[in-house]
Amino acid sequence: MTIVILDAYRRLPLFVRILLGAALGIAVGAAMGRHAESFKPFADLVLKLLRLLATPLIFLSILHSLLTAEIRGRSAGKLAWLLLSNTCVAIALGLLVVNLLAPGGHVAFPPPSGPLDKRPFDPVTDLLGKIPADFVSPFANNEVIGLIVVGVALGLALRALRAEEHEARIGTLVGWVKLGLDLTMKLLHWLFELVPLAVLAIIARVVGATGIAPLLNMIWFVASVALALALMACFYAVRLRLSSTVRPGRFFRGASDAFALAFSTASSAATLPVTYECATKKLDVREESASLGILVGGTFNHDGTALYEAMAALFVSQALGMHLPLGHQIVVALMSIIASVGAAGIPQAGFVTMIAVFSAVRLPIEYIPLLLPLDWLLDRCRTTVNVMGDLVSTCIVDRQPT
């Protein structure tokens, strides 16, 4: 009987298991009260393992993206500008909404298990201090920013070597990088099996310490993220109207299948074939532009993910009564851009890279699992925005108004 129940549990989608974990966490926390603190070591263990895998995921994703992206010509430069500016606007909108609405002000999380790091924070000094002095220390110390610097440097240098008659050797290296990335993803999939239990543990601790009110009030965060994503969709429509001959009405009708699949699967990678077909068959985008904007741009463009991770960091800081000044928020923005590139196009990948964003501004990562019960909806919304950004950039690169 137990085996049958376990098999039925494993067949459930991950988001359903996370919701079950949240429901059980509420019940256990209400029943145990302050004694629910005993679940903390298990939640800490899962978070440590996730942090262990977050850095290789980001490093290998950036390295693989730089090695495999076929970016050439003036269209590539135009696409790079579109992707970077879209991501910056997305993060700016997210930070604006979360600063104005202050959803964390409606929530009071219990204090973290350890003391908060209250050392003076100088963004420039802090970031410069994380630039590695050698290639080994970022890996030894699990330092995200150092790994990003090494990954970008290696990726650009290897692309330059590819043009100098090293194509065969670089091709072999790409295979090994892809193997490392697949291995990391396999380990993450195994670890995701424990995530619902971590959600149960952290929610039981919160409910046991403060009651259910903080969880109910997190609806303010959901509404804030939904508003910011809707504003980003409006920005896409305006940019499309000003920079392309594809009108917004035709765009949203022609891309509806891609948006529906993105929302239902929460995976931009799984949506790629449909996104490509919508661009070429319904929006009349040339195949070379679709390949550049969707297949290449989709690797780097995760506007919805960047927006969400920046908002999550400020929300948790508000809920803890911390004020992140402008310097901290600039670091959050930079790390959200980088982490969104490292977020593979699968469900819950943004949850892993969020650890890097929190760590950059010394926020305790133990509160990240509290966001997961909300993530089954928000992940679908931000994935849809990610796909929308890919298609808008593709239409602009393909066809500009005369």
Task: Kindly describe this structure.
Helix content is 76%, strand content 0%. It is mainly alpha-helical. The protein has helices at residues 2-11, 14-32, 40-68, 73-101, 123-129, 137-140, 144-162, 167-192, 195-210, 213-216, 219-243, 248-254, 256-265, 268-282, 287-300, 303-319, 326-342, 349-360, 372-398. The longest helix has 29 residues, at 40-68. It is globular. The protein contains 19 helices and no strands.
Oligomerization state of this entry? single chain
Mean pLDDT: 79
Provide a count of the helices: 19
Poorly predicted segments: none
Strand residues, percent: under 5%
- Percent of residues in helices comes to over 70%
Question: Structural class, please?
Answer: mainly alpha
